[in-house]
Write the structure tokens for this entry.
Amino acid sequence: MKLIWGKLFALIGVLIALVMNPQSVSGRELIKIPPGSYQSAYRNEGDPVQVQVDGFLMDALPVTNDQFFNFVKDDQRWRRSARNDLLADSHYLSHWKGDLDPAGPNHYLDSPVTNVSWFAAVEYCRSRGKRLPTINEWEYAASAGLTTLEGSGELGFNQYVLEWYSRPAPPVLPAVGNSARNFFGIGDMHGLIWEWVLDFNSILVSGESRGDGGLERELFCGAGAIRSANVNDYPAFMRFGLRSSLQARYTVNNLGFRCAADLLGSGINEND
Amino acid sequence: MKNYLKRILLLTSVLLFIFDAGVLAEQRLQVPLAYAPDAGKTLTRSPGKVRVDLETKEVTGRLADGVEYNFWTFGGTVPGPIIRIVEGDEVEFHLNNHPSSKMPHNIDLHAVTGPGGGAAASLTAPGHTSTFSFKALSAGLYVYHCATAPVGMHIANGMYGLILVEPEGGLPPVDREFYVVQSDFYTKGKYGQEGLQPFSMEKAIDEHADYVVFNGSVGAMVGDNAVRAKVGETVRLFIGNGGPNLVSSFHVIGEIFDTVYTEGGILPNQKNVQSTLIPAGGSAIVEFKVEVPGTLILVDHSIFRAFNKGAIAMIKVEGEDNSTVYSGKQADTIYLPEGGAIQEVLVASEESLTPMSHQERLSRGQRLYEQNCAACHQMEGQGIVGVFPPLASSDYLMEDLERAIGIVINGLEGEIIVNGERYNNIMPSQRLTDSDIANVIGYISNAWGNEGRLYSAPEVATIRASLKSH
């Protein structure tokens, strides 16, 4: 009797999971993010505290080495051997054993691909009929907690995120999809890698982070607290700090990406 | 004619090449870096073109015994190395962010005149290098630190050090120079709580430091790691304060600063100073001649930081006694501004849920000793003659361990004789659990040549109860 109940519960569980998230079986699904708003750490004078974001589609997980390998297999312009110094610096895919051998001692094939430039990320997404998410889309998707829309309201959420930023990079980068999905059904927004966004250099923190309140860009960072919506959102400051330190050709050991798409007319290629 | 032209072209390009190579090969003197407590070497050279290479790196390391922390560093250590250059130097500065770094970093050198002290020119992604140049316009002892957002967190995690811009010809010669930086740390667990402790943003914002340390960790410069000097030598300390929050009341127990360069300026502007204020993000240079042998103890004289948060470092002075300067034998009366009553030190401790092995009990006892007892009784239990009685080979301790347990529970006031030496001081009662008391007494009575038995927690409880009933 007990067994039957157990099986019934399991079946109901699977059904619910399928109804909620019909593509979850592949683990590489696009998630529909409903329109909404989030509180930006940075804003221009006159901007509202809450930034409105339209609905969009977003990869549930970051792009893996395996997926990126399929991309360079098809498009040899983006192989390591064909690297153009204007489009990617010398670390490009340096963690791979070879041009067409994505293995390596410090990652798995389904670890997020890193050491890729913005140009390469943009091209990858375009080849899949997608694009990189914007800062606002990424930050909005990342602001969700595990069970609610606003992670900052969940006990331990900020501390968890902060602790990942504080820890040195692990010797072996874990695979994607090992942490709990957030409220939107998206995974690995925190705790695995940094991610490229489409307009990464549109909000610049100057190197001198404490003086940014007085810049012509009228942005804030660090101690000034002039135009910060929330001076305690350290994780957001760190993400903006990192983005500001980048150029589009840069590649970094723990910087990867995921793709996004518009809700309409995206023409998504689901094979990857 | 064509040949002639070709030759000219060839000659020109060769000349250009040589000239170019000459420019590229322009000899820039690499500035050596010294790691605390080593202060490096005095510079006697004249100003010129120099190059500094400094690496930013994120490492997990020891904050206290049993306590680890994710440090963000310059050069892999906290503090970062001391950089010594000469006033007038033209410095080409290379900031290299290690590829394993998670964070972008930059550097603000207080010795630099210009936007952000270099920070505006040095924001560096992991695995990249930034280069900028500056001229060292003003001699002095300056702090450098990371200024990437959120600045407070980058500093709180350990990103600071000192850059000394020496006046041409150098500072006046002394016998010994040491490099010490004070700083405060904010951890999720309280002082001494074991394991890898994450940064606590709340405590940092509230400015409630769990640790105040010299040179990056509790006990970085005590015991075997203490620095040494000889009687008659003059010692110069380059003291920095990385903060992020606390101002230091820097003091050396048992010395008077003969000379202080207040706030790290280049003027020896004060004589005979007991304690000097060092602002967060500031420095001082102090000099003193050591007259008698013994251990000099560096503290932040905001004194609970010293005895309860780790702000202690040591200079061991060797040489002949000089009884005119210091007799070492005279009894002192003790001034007690807070009254004569025995005070309680609040040191709560988590009970272990699983039974501990003999060895685990001793090592737990050792940690407890280093946290609660070593500040007075010293790391090797040797005490300080006439002030804090010794525990190593102590007749008073070993003749009655139950009495010793009672002293830990209730404290002790009044005169006692230990190994023939008279002591008249106050030991505060220690609020430790019964099992912690059993462990710390177990450690003390089996360390440094002592041999005693291990008491159990119930035995300590019995002693505690019998003390109450009296």
In short: Strands of chain A lie at 30-33, 36-39, 50-53, 56-59, 194-195, 255-256, 260-262. The mean pLDDT of chain A is 81.
